[in-house]
Amino acid sequence: MIFSSTSQSTAPAQIGQAPRDARTPLIQSLETSDVTTEENSHNVSVTRKEGAVAKPWAHFVAGGIGGMTSATLTSPLDVLKTRLQSDFYQSQIAATRVARGTPSLSVFSLPRSALLHFQETFQILFSIHRVEGWRALFKGLGPNLTGVVPARAINFYAYGNGKRIISDRFNNGEENAWVHLCAAAIAGIATGTATNPIWLVKTRLQLDKSKAEKTGMQALRQYKNSFDCVRQTVRAEGTRGLYKGLSASYLGVSESTLQWVLYEQMKLYLSKRKDKLDASGRNRTLWDRAIEWNGRIAAAGSAKLFAAVITYPHEVVRTRLRQAPLQNGHLKYTGLVQCFTTIFKEEGMSSLYGGLTPHLLRVVPSAAIMFGM
Questions:
Q1: H-helix segments, 108-252
Q2: Are 321 and 244 in contact (CB under 8 A)?
Q3: In whole angstroms, what separates CA 264 from the centre of its chain?
Q4: Distance between CA atoms of 56 and 45, rounded to whole angstroms?
Q5: Can you give the pLDDT at residue 307?
Q6: Are the beta carbons of 238 and 200 closer than 8 angstroms?
Q7: Using an 8 Å Cβ cutoff, are 163 and 180 in contact?
Q8: What is the rounded CA–CA span in Å between residue 224 and residue 359?
Q9: What is the arrangement of strands in the sheet containing 2-4, beginning at the earlier edge strand?
Q10: How many CB atoms lie within 10 A of CB 99?
Q11: Eight-state DSSP code of residue 8
């Protein structure tokens, strides 16, 4: 965005010097709304203009609206992912394999193992609709919408403004990888701490089928709604119960941090490529135009894909830690390390990637749309 200074110099130009341009361009950063200028040929600096637009709130609003839209459209995949992460559904899948005489996935080749995984994943998705009705595909959407708006808004707000503050105060106003890294880590910790109770309620509502039987399903559910889930959790486990899984959420900061850093580096590459293309003066090819139109979307999606695959086990551990206590009131998973070791010993390494397929189908397009548009 270009602003122009309205003041004009009344001093006459000196001999041998070109007159100063009465309208010196002020460049406004789209990210922070800070207005900066470059020194002109006479080393005359122009006043820096701060905060021409309430840009910090733009991060807040954009993150909230984008997150709400994404959560609604991908709710069925979120329900499926959460159920595949739980020990109840993993044991159900194992029992089905035994009943059918299907051997362990480890004996199959990679393509056949992947095909069987996809079949089992979508069989569960279709069974949710068949057994529980289409509304079950949107279980937990209420707390999801309640949480995703502040979560995305806080994340965008903390990252966008954290990046500006860190670069201004500690890096002479310049952005680089370590600035992006610090801002993303701060944003992730702030978001996880503020919204953990909401995600705990969402997880327990989505897993509530484990408390029901095929007959009399509605009557045997443990939670009536989100408020009833909060009430029962606080009564049985105290206020601390609302923060179960927070340690895994902090571990998951590595995912959002890695995603932001990769995305920023890809954006930087695209920006430099565009500058070089403009400087060369050559006509844009079809490939150049395709990169200009789709580059940011591809960067956002690929950054999320890489970060999600690398850090996915923390998602499974977080879901297990948020599961409701057993009927005797005891917790099967009591801590981050204990949860990791228990899953690995009882179910194997593959269970730490349970639900990865619907997770990627949900978050990669969501990130591409929300970050890349």
A1: 110-132, 141-170, 177-206, 226-237, 246-251
A2: yes
A3: 15
A4: 26
A5: 93
A6: no
A7: yes
A8: 26
A9: 2-4, 25-28, 35-36
A10: 8
A11: -
φ and ψ at residue 26, rounded to 5 degrees:
-110, 125
Please report the sign of the dihedral spanned by the C-alpha atoms of residue 210, residue 216, residue 219, residue 225.
positive
Q: Read off the pTM.
A: 0.67
The pLDDT score that the predictor gives to residue 337 is: 92
Give the Cα separation of 21 and 12 in Å (integer).
Answer: 12
Q: Per-residue DSSP letters for 26-79?
A: EEEPTTT--EE----TT------B--SS-HHHHHHHHHHHHHHHHHHHTHHHHH
Contacts of 253 (CB under 8 A, 6+ apart): 184, 185, 188, 189, 192
Cα of 95 vs its chain's centroid, Å? 33
Candidates 43, 37, 39, 46; CA nearest to 17 is: 43
- The tens digit of pLDDT for each residue in 5-35 reads 444 444 444 444 444 444 433 333 333 334 3
Q: What pLDDT shows up at residue 25?
A: 38
The whole-number pLDDT of residue 59 equals 62
Q: Which residues contact 60 (CB under 8 A, 6 or more apart)?
A: 153, 154, 156, 157
The one-letter code for the residue type at 275 is D
Burial 14-48 (b: 16+ CB within 10 A, else e): eeeeeeeeeebebebeeebbbbebeeeeeeeebee
pLDDT tens for each residue of 313-337: 999 999 999 988 876 678 888 889 9
Low-confidence ranges of the chain (pLDDT < 50): 1-54, 210-219
pLDDT attached to residue 45: 39
> Tokens at residue 344, please?
């690995």
What is the signed CA dihedral for 361, 367, 370, 371, rounded to 10 degrees?
-160
